[in-house]
Amino acid sequence: RKYVRGQETTRIRFCRENIYIRDNFTCQYCGEHFSTRELTLDHILPVSQGGKKDWNNITTACRTCNQKKGSRTPEQAD
Fold this sequence. Notes:
3 helices, about 15% strand, alpha+beta
């Protein structure tokens, strides 16, 4: 899929598939490329700490990195 630039009146739907496309099917923590079955979505700032469900707080993560991070921020999880 491709995004068409210049059509500012059209909003891109916030959904799992579009997050994966935005992040190039790559875990944003370890940098590895994965299939959609191996990926999850992660709240960068966890909901338990006030994180929102929006484009700026959701990222693509592999299952291993997402489990390691848990309900912590990336800094807290090191």
